[in-house]
Amino acid sequence: MLKSVPVTNLIAHIEERRATIGVIGLGYVGMPLSLVAATAGFKVIGFDIDAMRVAQINRGESFINHIPASAVLSALSHRRLEATAEFGRLGEPDAILICVPTPLTRHREPDLTYIEETARAIAPRLRPGQLIVLESTTYPGTTEEIVKPILEKSGLKSGFDFFLAYSPEREDPGNPEFTTAKIPKVVGGDGAEALALANALYSQMVPHTVPVSSTATAETVKLTENIFRAVNIALVNELKIVYSAMGIDVWEVIRSAKTKPFGFMPFYPGPGLGGHCIPIDPFYLSWKAREFGLSTRFIELAGEINIQMPEYVIERLIRSLDQKLAKALSVSSILIVGLAYKKNVDDTRESPSLKLFELMEGRGAHVDYHDPLVPVIPATREHPELAGRRSVPFDPPTIASYDVVLIATDHDAVDYRMLVANARLVIDTRDACRRAGIVDPKVVRA
Fold this sequence. Notes:
The chain is an alpha/beta fold. The chain has 15 helices and 13 strands. It is globular.
């Protein structure tokens, strides 16, 4: 029996930009990817379960701070982009790229609910000749062990009727130097033909691709990239604690060490890990390793250190309150500056600021926050009680009304000189004040 659609025909369809691309999940990964595909000349149908988000996109609005509305409007005006909540249209695209969340359960085990539900939504609409690519970060084997069997319940076979691949997202929100269109894509396929198709597709959108031998290898590449960051951040977080006890400034040490032109790569400490990838991905590999009777002690130790950092910040805060203001945390008012997980973005996923908020309120403190990019705290699974809280004004009277200002995210838009001039006590977890040229005894690094 012949294949439903010859691969050479599909590749030509892609290279001539006649293919329609479907992107499922229009969040921090799917939306930039949709715009890159549209800019490359493809017609893009974006699928999302959030009808309000779909309407917002179709009006030409951007809900992500670092994506200008002009980019959305341009794609719409050229008829290269439309968003929909109608998953019955999944049979229309020639290629479907899955960009849905992969969180952890409360027991720090992989939660593949979104991937499984997405595959089940595709299966009844799957047609011969389609290319399906999973981009969501996950453990090795997910594409072939989870996604493939669900899709094949349609009666179509991977590598024969449809083609299945994995290409991990490498999004770095807010990084102007490395946007989605400038980052190479790793690609693995369920067979040589799926690899060739996925490689042809992404080659039209990014500078170059990196084909690998299997979907499991591609899945592992993504985990390795983020485990590398998590482990090194844990190292400098631990060094921060040790050096602080010795009276040594860890940020000064890192600044000096990075002048070495080889053998050292700077990583920076903070109040904890945030974002969807780095706090989560290492635990995906740890979970999968147990299936083979193996433990990932090094990775799990790094995770423990990073998870404990908010507690360390609170202890430094309590000590500083006692020494400098003679107050207890339980009767103090705290202003957190920065709710996003990293500077200059509006993304609060897994933000350590939310954990700090919870810890301080749990000890009786009155806590507010200011973030120029996050006017309202969105609903989150881990911190539902904080949803709807609003950013307070950032002016001298407001700052002066709090006992402590805790800098949790070092947004460039914050006036740190005005902050320090009006605050009673500043706990700086990002070295933001020193980098702004401010030296003041009321500033405590934590």
